[in-house]
Inverse folding.
């Protein structure tokens, strides 16, 4: 069905949205007398109203309880990271013991690779996507070098085989079939940051494991966006950040998944006291005994002020539930996609796959006419309070986030681009 390009239709759709109340739980930045149409959850999600109270609770406890805050209610700091565990596990489709909130994404990627990239002469290589987010590439390349191997031959990057810059499952399968015997570890994104393409993670894990490789995922753009089933996907590990669709603030504490089958692994790891067996941690013994599960990869006592906003955000995910969020996301991004195709086909080209199973909420857009026109539209939109982001060389990312965006936001974007194109 073709959906009408009218304000009335958008309002009816928003009124019928079972998750509409959640938008009020966010602080939407102002633009003039109104609000921004904020489509940049792919970079920094909006602030949940509850975040301030969670942070204030920590500051108040620090002021009034000081060191005793570790043990006293509310929310003692000693087990504070456990407060986020259950909901976080539900968001990524994991068992609670498989997830932990800690560090930052790139730091967690390195920690995971210490354990799960154990190259040998026969299997020295890491397989990844070409055009990956630079930090991932830097991390992987530096790991290959750290182990004395050569990234020129041992960092294998799967090139996009589709004209729009996306990578087909057949290309991934071919790469694994060709290089599999040399591949130690596969690191793959849940959603590719520039194209917005989402991948069949279960199938990638299956193919990787069949080839004898370890398989890990970077879910920076996947968490809170896709319906993830990490445990069932059989991934060995995954890492992500919480500042994008997880709305936990700039540089928020990140997350990590280690599959239950590695809960008591004797693989090497970089250790710290917070990963030590909880029951004996405070005996302060010299021998490291890892606590079971993802917690065993923790290094330090957690940054409580950093974790506080994540609690507020996860409360909203618990209220919504990922299935309902994902259903809304498909409707909202489908609406945007359909309007662009029917109304703006001569202005915008959609890079992101049309198949909802191959994307999250983000649409990556190229402006017909090239980079300079793209920049001009991007700046025009920003001046009009319509916030997406720009990724070199020529992509505008627009991500309707189902927790707070509306059909009316989508329509506002459409009207603005139409106005711009008609000038
Ligand atoms: C796909 C991907 N990987 C890695 C990173 C780096 O994250 P951090 O700076 O939190 O380590 C980002 C940041 O946006 C990202 O999008």
């Amino acid at each position: 069905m073709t959906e009408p390009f009218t304000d009335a239709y958008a309002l009816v759709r928003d009124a019928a949205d079972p998750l509409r109340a959640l938008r009020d739980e966010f602080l939407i930045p102002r633009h003039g007398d109104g609000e921004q149409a904020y489509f940049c959850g792919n970079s920094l999600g909006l602030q949940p109203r509850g975040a301030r109270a969670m942070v204030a609770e920590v500051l108040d406890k620090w002021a009034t309880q000081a060191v005793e805050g570790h043990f006293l209610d509310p929310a003692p700091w000693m087990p504070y990271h456990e407060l986020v565990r259950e909901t976080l596990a539900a968001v990524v489709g994991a068992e609670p013991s498989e997830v932990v909130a800690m560090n930052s994404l790139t730091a967690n990627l390195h920690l995971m690779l210490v354990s799960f990239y154990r190259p040998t002469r026969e299997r020295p290589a890491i397989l990844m996507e070409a055009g990956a987010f630079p930090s991932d590439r830097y991390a992987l390349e530096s790991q290959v070098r750290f182990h004395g191997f050569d990234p020129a031959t041992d960092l294998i990057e799967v090139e996009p085989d589709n004209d729009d810059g996306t990578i087909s499952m057949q290309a991934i399968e071919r790469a694994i079939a060709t290089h599999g015997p040399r591949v130690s570890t596969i690191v793959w994104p849940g959603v590719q940051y520039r194209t917005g393409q989402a991948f069949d993670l279960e199938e990638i894990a299956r193919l990787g494991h069949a080839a004898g490789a370890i398989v890990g995922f970077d879910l920076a753009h996947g968490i809170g966006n896709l319906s993830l089933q990490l445990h069932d996907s059989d991934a060995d590990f995954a890492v992500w950040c919480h500042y994008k669709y997880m709305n936990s603030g700039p540089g928020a504490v990140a997350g990590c998944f280690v599959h239950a089958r590695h809960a008591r692994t004797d693989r090497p790891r970089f250790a710290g006291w917070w990963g030590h067996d909880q029951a004996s941690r405070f005996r302060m013994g010299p021998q490291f005994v890892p606590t079971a599960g993802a917690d065993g990869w923790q290094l330090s006592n957690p940054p409580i002020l950093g974790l506080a906003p994540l609690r507020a955000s996860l409360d909203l995910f618990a209220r919504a539930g990922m299935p309902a969020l994902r259903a809304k996301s498909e409707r909202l991004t489908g609406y945007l996609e359909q309007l662009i195709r029917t109304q703006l086909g001569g202005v915008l080209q959609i890079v992101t796959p049309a198949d909802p199973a191959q994307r999250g909420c983000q649409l990556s857009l190229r402006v017909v006419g090239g980079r300079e026109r793209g920049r001009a539209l991007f700046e025009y939109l920003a001046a009009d309070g319509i916030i997406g982001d720009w990724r070199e060389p020529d992509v505008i990312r627009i991500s309707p986030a189902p927790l707070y965006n509306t059909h009316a936001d989508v329509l506002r974007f459409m009207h603005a681009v139409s106005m711009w194109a008609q000038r």
In short: Residues 104-106, 133, 135-136, 189, 193, 218, 220-221, 241, 254 surround pyridoxal-5'-phosphate (CB under 6 Å). The chain has a mean pLDDT of 97.
